[in-house]
Amino acid sequence: xxxxxxxxxxxxxxxxxxxxxxxxxxxxxxxxxxxxxxxxxxxxxxxxxxxxxxxxxxxxxxxxxxxxxxxxxxxxxxxxxxxxxxxxxxxxxxxxxxxxxxxxxxxxxxxxxxxxxxxxxxxxxxxxxxxxxxxxxxxxxxxxxxxxxxxxxxxxxxxxxxxxxxxxxxxxxxxxxxxxxxxxxxxxxxxxxxxxxxxxxxxxxxxxxxxxxxxxxxxxxxxxxxxxxxxxxxxxxxxxxxxxxxxxxxxxxxxxxxxxxxxxxxxxxxxxxxxxxxxxxxxxxxxxxxxxxxxxxxxxxxxxxxxxxxxxxxxxxxxxxxxxxxxxxxxxxxxxxxxxxxxxxxxxxxxxxxxxxxxxxxxxxxxxxxxxxxxxxxxxxxxxxxxxxxxxxxxxxxxxxxxxxxxxxxxxxxxxxxxxxxxxxxxxxxxxxxxxxxxxxxxxxxxxxxxxxxxxxxxxxxxxxxxxxxxxxxxxxxxxxxxxxxxxxxxxxxxxxxxxxxxxxxxxxxxxxxxxxxxxxxxxxxxxxxxxxxxxxxxxxxxxxxxxxxxxxxxxxxxxxxxxxxxxxxxxxxxxxxxxxxxxxxxxxxxxxxxxxxxxxxxxx
Length: 605
Hints:
alpha/beta; nine-stranded mixed beta sheet; two-stranded antiparallel sheet; 17 helices; globular
């Protein structure tokens, strides 16, 4: 009787936990939609186009109420960067749409929902389509490019120069250099530079060198940043933005304001609004709440499924382990979880990128070279973890202490073999989680036109079959890393309160797992911000011998993996402390992280 009462109470708590997470997601979604659409004044739709070769190009369309067939509005097309997709620049899209511009933000090859093909041709197709819309001012389109998208904008301009009214190139001097310069651009043109841009540093040099190259290309003499000049009858501006990195353009208020200022100066806004009247911060705030809540919702869903008889059979008594405490335990944990991984990141990721690059055997399966750098580094960390476990096992053997499945968090104390029903049912829970959250994100996209993104720290978008298929090898890698990393769950000394002990364990394991990437990012990007020229503290590696850095792409992905690996480790720890094994946590988390965090980014660059 007492057990039935306890089970009913636990089920009630699980239902409440799950409902609370869904309520937070729902409220956050309403606010995100409200900020992105000015509470219904803007409609966000997704349009799928077909190219001459049969490829599909998907694009987001922000349509403000003022844009009608009778009163066409100016149009802005935003071309995203390499590791992004159409939603990546929602902060820019919504600020321009709030001012009455029709905004098209396409998914270009390798990101979002478009086919994998030539991104320049995709952008040209979308731009030509925009010029046919009856509610758009035709023949006077405005291009905004970010990072790799700045090169895309140049290709679009060169394909249809008579249709382009202006170009605003954000954080792309190095791409303009790689693309052959902009001497031939004869339209309104703005180039925005982040002073601490690592890519500019590698290709062009410090801000002074970048300015000298821009002056040479512009051909109008000495240029003062952030001022307008006449260039063949068009407005030319070279802007420098301090306090940003290459990766932070879509969450830099100063950058967003500069984009708005320039676009409105060369294509007057239908809706009058101050350039500093921005809503990107609250939009990102509620997106952040939603992103974090998604991790809690995953834990809550698995926890709820575990209340059923079928899935509940996975559980076993939490294995009894000797608490690890004292200075030595902390030093070892920090050494192997933070210090060593941080020290080896640049070199390991660089050479993995070289060995799995285009044309190699591995590139057939591991389609994202920058992502490969992160994955290879994670596998090296996992290998270090295996060595630690072997050493610990030998120590227990010498001490006469028997090991069991409980020792490795795979079963109950005394179990000598794996009960394969447990990983099988855990896999099923992972599939249920993907169907549930994939449906949730699909409904958000379909009815509200939004997703959950905070900068490039965390990203959840509608799932697309092609991207899921490409993500499978990475899901397997993430599973392996999570599996090994969580087999040796550290047990901290008890505080006497079981609930408090659980959340302390979640917090400690989350922080330790995320700490290595956090330290690397702090050193590289924090140091670069302090230096202010784009130079990094730890020199990047010229892995292809071209004379310029080609290895820092992996670090661009590190922001998301700091969040993803830390967050999912917290989920695994929570479920382990409740149900006595890591199966019910690791498999759902690996599938969840792979399909959302990986499939939402580019898998071909």
